[in-house]
Design a protein that fits this description.
The protein is 22% helix and 43% strand. It has a six-stranded antiparallel barrel with strand order 1-2-3-6-5-4. By secondary structure, it is α+β, with helices and mostly antiparallel strands.
Length: 98
């Protein structure tokens, strides 16, 4: 089995095991690891950023995602930054959509 296939299988297993939200992105529902860092900052945990972020499979992220909207728990978010980690996962930085 090629390393890329092992990496894809590992990413899928991690997301399925650690996902705490279902994310609607590009019309598809995918597992995501959501962190509302604004809440953590308010609780005094010393996080550098206060924007919510979600980690999803890179394959679920549309081309040029910045400015596009996704939905988590019926809340619409706009993607303000996308940071692929080059291992098959992408961290999306979000803001609540107007």
């Amino acid at each position: 089995m090629l390393f890329a296939n092992l990496q894809l299988a590992a990413n899928s297993a991690v997301l399925n095991h650690l996902a705490n939200k279902q994310v609607t992105i590009g019309g598809a529902v995918v597992p995501g690891i959501f962190r509302n860092l604004a809440s953590e900052v308010q609780l005094g945990m010393g996080v550098a950023s206060s924007s919510p972020v979600v980690t999803v499979a890179s394959s679920a992220v549309m081309v040029e995602p910045v400015g596009k909207q996704i939905t988590i728990d019926a809340v619409r978010y706009e993607i303000v930054d996308a940071d692929p980690d080059n291992t098959g996962l992408t961290i999306l930085t979000l803001t609540v959509a107007a």
